# Entry
Amino acid sequence: MNFRTQVDIPQSPLRMNHKQQHILLGSCFAENIGRLLLDNKFEIEMNPFGIVYNPMSAAKIINMLLDEYPFSEKDILHDKGLYFSLMHHGEFSESDPQAYLDKIRYSARRSASRVREMDNLLVTFGTAYTYSWKQTGQIVNNCHKLPASLFERKRLSFEEIVEEWSALIHRLLAIRPEMNFLFTVSPIRHWKDGAHENQLSKSILLLAIDELQRSFPSQVFYFPSYELILDELRDYRFYAEDMIHPNDTAIGYCWKKFSETYFDDETNRLIARWQPLFKAIAHRPFRLENAEHQVFLKKTLDKLWIFANDYPYLNCNKEIDQIKSYILE
# Structure
């Protein structure tokens, strides 16, 4: 007897590998998958403006990168000693306005150079609720805990999301016709919206992605992270202490399913070779000068050289330099 429901994920025609360029946008769930991709040597750009929750802000970020939007003083606000932008996450905040502008301009320039060359855009929608800055009517990415009276809250319709993202997909395909789009819906509940309102929000996101798949059947794909967490892993042992965010076990399970769905045999072989090296590099001894550990470091460095030679399209210089710095001659 089977005591749990399992989400059937058919093999996808979308294949991801280490020679491709990937950009990830979305909520903290996108960042979890993004970190795992980074840990496994994928070339990715992740949330160039910081975490983004709603579909409209995600689309606007890509359009701003394509337009090479010139951020200036008019785009930043000041509150409680910090400068920030309503399109950026609080992680960018600075106490000096010029330092802040330099930071967001650098991030935008770096990402703008990649967005036209990306092979895969991975987007996680978190909520269908948006907040608009009343002074301009523009949807913001982050409210930065400013008074709620300064914003207008709205729940998007799935038609609005489809219209915005259809236009963006057409724009991107005109630049890079072979580009693929992988959408997910974050399994993290937006509990402050209310239980029923959260369900309505997630349903709108799911309907919008489904419609985009129908409109672009060969280039728009969906990964059921939402269903995996809420239907297959429907037990609080798979959640963090807040009972809302998936824990490491749940994220690891989604990663396993993600790998099985989108990675080919060569990609999986590369990851299998890299993982022992990744763990060896991350190992921190009590005493660096220990003779046994020094031997371990030299063996790890030899293996890194072999790996880098076998996969010349991967940049292992950072890891090689790191191990070298630990070896005491």
Notes: Residues 195-215 form the longest helix (21 residues). The longest strand covers residues 21-26. The chain has a mean pLDDT of 94.
